[in-house]
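Q: I'm teaching a short session on how sequence maps to structure, and I want students to see two examples side by side rather than one. Could you give me a first protein with its sequence written out and its structure tokens following it? Keep the formatting plain so it prints cleanly on a handout.
A: Of course. Example one:
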Amino acid sequence: YLAFCQPGDTTMGMSLPAGGHLTHGWHVSITGKYFNSIGYGVDEKTHLLDYAAIRSLAKEHNPKLMFCGTTAYPRTVHFDKFREIADEVGAILCADISHIAGLVVAGEHPTPVGLAQVVTTTTHKTLRGPRGAAILSDNQFAKKIDRAVFPGLQGGPHNHTTAAIAVAAKEASMPAFQEYARQIVRNAKRLAELLTEKGYTLITGGTDNHLLVIDIFKSHGVPGKIAAQALDKAGIVCNYNSVPFDTRKPFDPSGLRIGTPAVTTRGLNESHMKSIADWIDRVIAAPDDIKSLDRIAGEIRELCEGFPAPGLCDSVNEVGARV
């Protein structure tokens, strides 16, 4: 934003309720307060990105900067279509691949490199590195972005984080990382199938990537916040999340967002997704039953003891299992 825009300039990004991120111009974010942000969404029936509607909005508002990328969208993002739209209106295209960077690196999702002039990503999530970020750009924009970072936004580099990002990048270049990314998608697809069989309403009907968005209120009458809190007590960490065209408030929404990168890192595969789906279903059936949640938590601890988090010593894993 600082590299390319002045306060009040028109920008465009996916709206938060449709699956976009706060930083893509949502009104409660500084990115929505400082700029004239236009939000695009998804088709009301399919919940897929509506590229024709996005093109119409772009032609109507002529944004200076356009973001493509999501935070709660379980399908493939077609960066080539976004570039066509951006070119039509003379916008700079920024692809935010924070959630799918690991999948992009491994070839499990199309890459925006060569299509978007700017690519941004966090270095954790599917890239599985430290909490940090990276910006890639065409040469013509590099100097503007560098100046926006320093002195525009930050002063001192965190060299320990930079070193850890280098380690993560090295790991991501290895064949084992490709298998990890493939397994993430296989696990997500299998979990989607199992939950669908149990009667859960999945946004877009399934997934192409690492995450599922479930309209838990529509299928089971349980608000997303209550479901997420109950799942957390049982040992399944997810987050309550708005769904497209949600009738509930953002802090008490209808949906859940669940991802498979963490369980995949621990070594779980498709065969384990049945247990996870069964646990989710048992929690949703009785979210207030503390004894049931405790039993499920014990079962989950037992499974996790056989799949310790990589890099942790046995003594730490023993403590973690007891906790």
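Q: Perfect. Now a second example for contrast.
A: Example two:
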Amino acid sequence: YVFGQIHLPDNLFLFYSSTALNKFHQFKCWFIIQLIISLPIAFYGVFTLVIGSFFGYYITPLIILLYILLLAVISAFVYVKYISNPIRVKSKSILLRIVNDWQKPFFSLFFYHVLDKLKITFAITKVLSLAVINGGFYFLTGLNNDLRVLGIVTLGIIIAHAFLIYQSYRFESLYLNFSRNFPYSKNILYLNWAVNYLLLTLPENIWHLTAFDFKIGSAFILFNLGTGMLFRSLLYRVALDMKKFLYWVFYLFIFFFLVIMQKLYWLLIPINLLLSIILFYKNYYKQSTYIKS
């Protein structure tokens, strides 16, 4: 836990500031820190010592207190030795070594981030997406010729990608915040994230084109793109408030589901795309990185 806290970006200064002290002072500081961390155990040790003194048992309570002191001493030595070494850089993943020399357009940065840091999240999302496709057509097998089924399944695919959509905004806010100073127009920025979303849902888009007529498949790819980008553009309003974002996703899912059931899914294709563009254009430079505690 302590090593993890040391390596947080806000605490990396410890590798340079605390090492300015001599070893004894470093040891004393880390010893006190470990004692503070061990306070619950220390209170237990003092409690056992008090109770033991009434009944004539001293050895076990003393062993507990000595154990806490020994733990603090050993931990302090370990921390001093650890923080005196240079910052350790993790070795590159296989993917990063493969694509190290490739050109990386702006739109592809989050996609590389997903493949490198969010592999498990991406895999779970694709499993959920596959379950939605198979489950939707299995349970609605009597309505396979009804495009409402395809609309509901496509909506389910979008919902399955909601967490990745949130992560894309988080990645932009925390790591690409400087890009607002780039000479990119809003048109280019919107297209960059639209292409990024199409990449994230590439298997599903291929499925749309191969499993259905080209016109129908293309239409529902646009529905997928417009609705996915609408969810993402909403994040420029709610920022990194995950709870509020999930509420919006839930409410819109219910609304879109009802619209699809009324066979008005064709209206959602242009409306969602247009709304996503409007929200993006109005809120891009008003976005906030505030994280609700």
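Q: What should students look for in example two?
A: Point them to this: The chain is about 75% helix and 0% strand. Also worth mentioning: Confidence is low (pLDDT under 50) at residues 289-293.
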